[in-house]
Amino acid sequence: MRVLVVGANGKTGTRLIRNLVAGPHDPVAMIRHSGQRSTFDDLGVSTVLGDLEYPIDHAVKGCDALIFAAGSGSSTGKDKTVLIDRLGAIRTMVAAQVHGVNRYIMLSATYVDVQSRSPIAHYHQAKAHADNYLRETELDYTIVCPGRLTDDPGTGRVSVDANINLTGDTSRDHLATALAICLDMGNTVGKTFSLLEGDVPIEHAVESI
Question: How far is CA 43 from CA 18, 39, 50, 80, 151, in A?
Fold first, then answer.
Protein backbone atom coordinates (compact mmCIF):
# COMPACT_ATOMS: atom_id res chain seq x y z
CA MET A 1 0.00 0.00 0.00
CA ARG A 2 1.41 3.38 -1.04
CA VAL A 3 0.80 5.72 1.90
CA LEU A 4 1.13 9.50 1.81
CA VAL A 5 2.16 10.87 5.20
CA VAL A 6 1.19 14.52 5.53
CA GLY A 7 3.33 16.13 8.21
CA ALA A 8 6.09 13.57 7.79
CA ASN A 9 8.82 15.85 9.11
CA GLY A 10 7.16 16.33 12.51
CA LYS A 11 8.08 14.42 15.66
CA THR A 12 5.21 11.98 15.22
CA GLY A 13 5.48 11.93 11.43
CA THR A 14 9.10 10.79 11.37
CA ARG A 15 8.32 8.02 13.85
CA LEU A 16 5.38 7.01 11.69
CA ILE A 17 7.55 6.84 8.58
CA ARG A 18 9.97 4.52 10.38
CA ASN A 19 7.06 2.28 11.40
CA LEU A 20 5.80 2.11 7.83
CA VAL A 21 9.25 1.39 6.41
CA ALA A 22 9.59 -1.53 8.82
CA GLY A 23 6.25 -2.96 7.66
CA PRO A 24 4.66 -3.95 4.37
CA HIS A 25 3.80 -0.45 3.20
CA ASP A 26 5.45 2.03 0.83
CA PRO A 27 5.40 5.45 2.53
CA VAL A 28 5.72 8.79 0.77
CA ALA A 29 6.77 11.70 2.96
CA MET A 30 5.14 15.03 2.18
CA ILE A 31 7.52 17.80 3.22
CA ARG A 32 7.41 21.58 2.92
CA HIS A 33 11.06 22.26 2.11
CA SER A 34 13.70 20.42 0.11
CA GLY A 35 16.05 20.81 3.09
CA GLN A 36 13.91 18.26 4.94
CA ARG A 37 14.55 15.59 2.31
CA SER A 38 17.81 14.14 3.67
CA THR A 39 16.12 12.49 6.67
CA PHE A 40 13.93 10.48 4.34
CA ASP A 41 16.63 9.84 1.75
CA ASP A 42 18.59 8.10 4.50
CA LEU A 43 15.57 5.85 5.13
CA GLY A 44 15.05 5.14 1.44
CA VAL A 45 11.69 6.90 1.52
CA SER A 46 10.28 8.90 -1.39
CA THR A 47 9.41 12.54 -0.74
CA VAL A 48 7.10 15.06 -2.35
CA LEU A 49 6.98 18.80 -1.73
CA GLY A 50 3.63 20.12 -0.58
CA ASP A 51 2.11 22.98 1.41
CA LEU A 52 -1.29 22.60 3.04
CA GLU A 53 -2.15 26.19 2.24
CA TYR A 54 -2.19 25.25 -1.45
CA PRO A 55 -3.52 22.37 -3.58
CA ILE A 56 -1.70 19.08 -3.01
CA ASP A 57 -3.29 16.96 -5.74
CA HIS A 58 0.15 16.16 -7.14
CA ALA A 59 1.13 14.56 -3.83
CA VAL A 60 -2.06 12.53 -3.43
CA LYS A 61 -2.20 11.05 -6.95
CA GLY A 62 -1.15 7.43 -7.12
CA CYS A 63 -1.46 6.76 -3.39
CA ASP A 64 -3.68 4.16 -1.74
CA ALA A 65 -3.96 5.75 1.69
CA LEU A 66 -3.30 9.05 3.44
CA ILE A 67 -2.33 9.69 7.04
CA PHE A 68 -2.75 13.26 8.26
CA ALA A 69 -0.11 13.89 10.94
CA ALA A 70 0.42 17.59 10.31
CA GLY A 71 -0.16 20.52 12.64
CA SER A 72 0.44 24.24 12.71
CA GLY A 73 2.45 23.93 15.94
CA SER A 74 2.21 25.76 19.22
CA SER A 75 4.50 28.61 18.12
CA THR A 76 2.18 29.84 15.37
CA GLY A 77 -0.86 32.08 15.65
CA LYS A 78 -4.53 31.18 15.61
CA ASP A 79 -4.75 32.02 11.92
CA LYS A 80 -2.28 29.26 11.05
CA THR A 81 -4.23 26.82 13.20
CA VAL A 82 -7.29 27.45 11.06
CA LEU A 83 -5.29 27.34 7.81
CA ILE A 84 -3.48 24.08 8.61
CA ASP A 85 -5.44 22.08 11.18
CA ARG A 86 -8.86 22.84 9.74
CA LEU A 87 -8.71 24.04 6.14
CA GLY A 88 -5.50 22.23 5.25
CA ALA A 89 -6.86 18.99 6.65
CA ILE A 90 -10.09 19.39 4.69
CA ARG A 91 -8.03 20.11 1.56
CA THR A 92 -6.39 16.69 1.92
CA MET A 93 -9.78 15.01 2.31
CA VAL A 94 -11.09 16.63 -0.85
CA ALA A 95 -7.96 15.63 -2.76
CA ALA A 96 -8.23 12.08 -1.44
CA GLN A 97 -11.80 11.78 -2.67
CA VAL A 98 -11.00 13.30 -6.07
CA HIS A 99 -8.12 10.91 -6.65
CA GLY A 100 -9.67 7.75 -5.25
CA VAL A 101 -7.55 7.49 -2.10
CA ASN A 102 -10.17 5.81 0.06
CA ARG A 103 -8.23 4.99 3.24
CA TYR A 104 -7.72 8.05 5.43
CA ILE A 105 -6.32 8.19 8.96
CA MET A 106 -6.55 11.40 10.96
CA LEU A 107 -4.30 12.31 13.87
CA SER A 108 -6.63 14.37 16.04
CA ALA A 109 -6.66 15.04 19.80
CA THR A 110 -8.70 14.46 22.92
CA TYR A 111 -11.28 17.07 23.95
CA VAL A 112 -11.86 18.39 20.42
CA ASP A 113 -15.16 20.24 20.23
CA VAL A 114 -16.49 22.94 17.89
CA GLN A 115 -17.78 24.73 21.01
CA SER A 116 -14.56 24.27 22.99
CA ARG A 117 -13.70 26.86 25.63
CA SER A 118 -10.44 25.24 26.66
CA PRO A 119 -7.18 27.21 27.04
CA ILE A 120 -6.39 26.10 23.45
CA ALA A 121 -9.95 26.40 22.18
CA HIS A 122 -8.85 27.59 18.73
CA TYR A 123 -6.97 24.32 18.25
CA HIS A 124 -9.71 22.07 19.64
CA GLN A 125 -12.31 23.84 17.51
CA ALA A 126 -10.24 23.59 14.34
CA LYS A 127 -9.58 19.89 14.84
CA ALA A 128 -13.25 19.25 15.61
CA HIS A 129 -14.37 20.96 12.41
CA ALA A 130 -11.90 18.86 10.41
CA ASP A 131 -12.97 15.64 12.12
CA ASN A 132 -16.65 16.40 11.53
CA TYR A 133 -15.99 17.07 7.86
CA LEU A 134 -14.16 13.76 7.57
CA ARG A 135 -17.10 11.87 9.08
CA GLU A 136 -19.38 13.27 6.40
CA THR A 137 -17.18 12.01 3.55
CA GLU A 138 -17.33 8.56 2.01
CA LEU A 139 -13.70 7.91 2.93
CA ASP A 140 -12.74 4.84 4.96
CA TYR A 141 -11.57 6.95 7.86
CA THR A 142 -10.13 6.37 11.31
CA ILE A 143 -9.66 9.22 13.80
CA VAL A 144 -7.02 8.66 16.49
CA CYS A 145 -7.12 11.04 19.47
CA PRO A 146 -4.01 11.08 21.69
CA GLY A 147 -3.66 12.94 24.96
CA ARG A 148 -0.71 15.13 25.92
CA LEU A 149 2.12 14.02 23.65
CA THR A 150 5.44 13.03 25.15
CA ASP A 151 8.79 11.87 23.82
CA ASP A 152 8.96 9.07 26.38
CA PRO A 153 10.01 5.70 24.95
CA GLY A 154 7.01 3.51 24.23
CA THR A 155 6.34 0.55 26.51
CA GLY A 156 4.11 -1.11 23.93
CA ARG A 157 1.08 -0.84 26.23
CA VAL A 158 -1.79 1.62 25.87
CA SER A 159 -5.41 2.31 26.66
CA VAL A 160 -8.05 2.98 24.00
CA ASP A 161 -11.61 4.21 24.43
CA ALA A 162 -14.47 5.50 22.30
CA ASN A 163 -14.66 8.39 24.77
CA ILE A 164 -12.30 11.12 23.56
CA ASN A 165 -12.84 13.37 26.59
CA LEU A 166 -10.22 11.66 28.69
CA THR A 167 -7.10 13.09 30.31
CA GLY A 168 -3.70 11.46 30.06
CA ASP A 169 -0.39 11.23 28.26
CA THR A 170 0.44 9.53 24.98
CA SER A 171 3.94 8.61 23.88
CA ARG A 172 4.67 9.64 20.30
CA ASP A 173 6.12 6.17 19.86
CA HIS A 174 2.74 4.64 20.71
CA LEU A 175 0.88 7.15 18.56
CA ALA A 176 3.02 6.44 15.49
CA THR A 177 2.62 2.69 15.99
CA ALA A 178 -1.16 2.99 16.33
CA LEU A 179 -1.47 5.13 13.19
CA ALA A 180 0.46 2.52 11.22
CA ILE A 181 -1.46 -0.42 12.68
CA CYS A 182 -4.80 1.12 11.79
CA LEU A 183 -3.99 0.93 8.09
CA ASP A 184 -4.51 -2.83 8.09
CA MET A 185 -7.26 -3.13 10.70
CA GLY A 186 -10.67 -2.99 9.10
CA ASN A 187 -12.33 -2.80 12.51
CA THR A 188 -11.02 0.76 12.89
CA VAL A 189 -12.80 2.08 9.78
CA GLY A 190 -15.44 4.64 10.70
CA LYS A 191 -14.17 4.79 14.29
CA THR A 192 -12.93 7.59 16.54
CA PHE A 193 -11.00 6.66 19.67
CA SER A 194 -8.71 8.06 22.33
CA LEU A 195 -5.23 6.62 22.74
CA LEU A 196 -3.52 7.01 26.11
CA GLU A 197 -0.83 5.25 28.09
CA GLY A 198 -2.15 2.03 29.59
CA ASP A 199 -1.69 -1.67 30.26
CA VAL A 200 -2.91 -3.40 27.08
CA PRO A 201 -0.50 -4.41 24.30
CA ILE A 202 -1.03 -1.88 21.54
CA GLU A 203 -2.12 -4.31 18.81
CA HIS A 204 -4.65 -5.96 21.09
CA ALA A 205 -5.95 -2.57 22.17
CA VAL A 206 -6.49 -1.40 18.60
CA GLU A 207 -8.11 -4.73 17.70
CA SER A 208 -10.69 -4.09 20.44
CA ILE A 209 -11.97 -0.82 18.93
Answer: 8, 7, 19, 30, 21
Q: Which helix (H) or strand (E) holds 150?
A: strand 148-150
Nearest CA among 72, 68, 5 for reference residue 39:
5
54 is catalytic: no
What sign results for the dihedral spanned by CA atoms 152, 156, 158, 164? positive
* Active-site position among 104, 111, 123, 141: 123
Q: What is the DSSP letter of 153?
A: P
pLDDT in tens, the chain (209 residues): 999 999 999 999 999 999 999 989 999 999 999 999 999 999 999 999 999 999 999 999 999 999 999 987 666 668 889 999 999 999 999 999 999 999 999 999 999 999 999 999 999 999 999 999 999 999 999 999 999 999 999 999 999 999 999 999 999 999 999 999 999 999 999 999 999 999 999 999 999 99
d(CA 84, CA 71): 6
Structural domains of the chain sorted by starting position, each given as residue range(s) with its CATH number in brackets: 2-207 (3.40.50.720)
